[in-house]
Design brief:
Elements (H helix, E strand, L loop, with lengths): L4 H17 L5 E2 L15 E6 L4 E5 L5 E2 L4 H13 L20 H5 L10 H12 L4 H16 L5 E2 L1 H10 L1 H12 L7 H12 L1 E3 L1 H7 L1 H4 L14 H14 L5 H7 L4 E3 L4 E6 L3 E6 L2 E2 L6 H14 L7
Antiparallel strand pairs: 1-10, 2-3, 2-9, 4-6, 5-6, 7-8, 8-9
Helix pairs in contact: 1-13, 2-4, 4-7, 4-8, 5-8, 5-9, 6-8, 7-8
The protein binds 6-diazenyl-5-OXO-L-norleucine.
């Protein structure tokens, strides 16, 4: 059953209005100092449906730091390069641990649980980097984002990348630890340089929702008709988003929202309603797991009102 565009527009507007009234906004991330400068009252919501209709409200055009949402796209790129060989470097099970946890890595001999925790995403970035200079690998990731969003204005926020490069001691520890097990092929500095920069890509809700369309439509961008990945790969990436996309908040996100989703500490969430829509929401305040607090509440309201949970109405 398709949702009428007028209903969609109305629901998106209502939810943005409701979120604007709320005082419980969570805490803006401060462990990357540059992220703490963002306005905590920002809120944007964009839904792009199968016909390319864009329903949008709030700060839909303001670029924000996509941070860990970039991991969905680097996973897609790396799978395109090395296929299932990727799964010898990184697992695909939920971690039940914080996104920057160190303890699990030791128990599992340097193989990260999944591609969305920091260690896993660093291992994925390392695969993209192999055989290239860091500048080339980063260029490839950025070009991929521009292609997916059909928007050449997307850039990297160098101040955010530099801020994380100066303070990313945990990621440096994780990468060195994986290197000791041979899970990282390239120089740790090079791999982390690419990782910090792809996390610092800045995109608006509109650009992000546009970029996620291939995951909603069986690997295909419905407006260009171009296949980005095979349908089976899109389905599997969605499965990993569902089980691992919100770290140890993934169960709660599935319970409340019922869609594959990926969060970032910049306060963005990309959520996919398979066959129906690609959705991006942004509210910088985070919950205790590092996921956007109002972002999740907005998505919960959206799926409930539209009956879009993949688990039923
Ligand atoms: O590596 C980090 O800590 C950040 N660049 C990304 C973490 C992140 O976005 C976690 N997501 N909620």
């Amino acid at each position: 059953m398709s949702t009428s565009t007028s209903l969609l527009d109305q629901v998106v507007r209502e939810i943005a209005d409701e979120m604007a009234q709320r005082s419980d906004r969570g805490e803006v991330a401060s462990y990357i100092p540059e992220l703490a400068r963002v306005d905590a009252n920002s809120f944007g919501l964009v839904v792009v449906d199968a016909d390319g209709h864009v329903a949008a409200a709030g700060d839909r055009e303001t670029p924000f730091s996509i941070q860990s949402i970039s991991k969905v796209f680097t996973l897609t790129l790396a799978l395109g390069k090395v296929g299932d060989r990727l799964w010898s470097r990184v697992g695909r099970e939920p971690s039940g641990s914080p996104f920057n946890s160190i303890v699990q890595l030791e128990r599992e001999r340097g193989i990260p649980r999944n591609p969305f925790i920091n260690a896993g995403a660093i291992a994925v970035t390392d695969l993209i980097l192999s055989g290239h200079q860091p500048r080339e690998a980063l260029g490839e990731i950025l070009r991929f984002m521009r292609f997916l969003a059909d928007d050449s204005s997307i850039t990297i926020d160098e101040a955010v990348a530099a801020s994380e490069q100066r303070t990313g001691f945990r990621n440096i520890a994780l990468a060195n630890y994986m290197k000791s097990f041979g899970v990282i092929e390239n120089s740790v500095d090079f791999t982390l340089g690419v990782y910090f920069h792809h996390c610092a890509i800045a995109m608006s809700c509109r650009q992000l929702a546009m970029a996620g369309r291939y995951l909603a439509y069986a690997g295909r961008n419905p407006s260009t008709g171009l296949n980005v990945v095979q349908a089976e790969r899109a389905r599997r990436i969605n499965a990993i988003m569902m089980t691992c996309g919100h770290y140890d908040g993934s169960g709660e996100f599935a319970y409340r929202v019922g869609l594959p989703g990926k969060s970032g500490v910049g306060g963005g969430i990309l959520a996919i309603a398979p066959g129906k829509a690609s959705i991006a929401v942004w509210s910088p305040g985070l919950d205790a797991n590092g996921n956007s607090h109002l972002g999740r509440m907005a998505l919960e309201a959206l799926t409930r009102r539209l009956g879009w949970s993949i688990f039923g109405v």
